[in-house]
Task: structure prediction
Amino acid sequence: MAQKEAQITTLHPQGKKGASISKEKYELIKSEIIAELQNGPKRYTPIADAIAQRIEDQFDGRVYWFVTTVKLDLEARGLLRRITVNGMILLELVK
Result:
């Protein structure tokens, strides 16, 4: 019998029901988001595009859906927040 892949249930910043996803995929996307934000706040689309470009060839699943789901989870856990700069919504790591 094959061993079941470890799962994580994500959180949502508005208290909505999270998704149950592969812990391995969660950790990959989380590390990619954090890497993208190491040099300061960025808009969501360039973050998601850069991650998709790097991993989509070896990633089994819809990269943008996973990036959004993990981003929301990181917001709910207080590791990431949205800020407004010159009318643009940016994401930044919480120090």
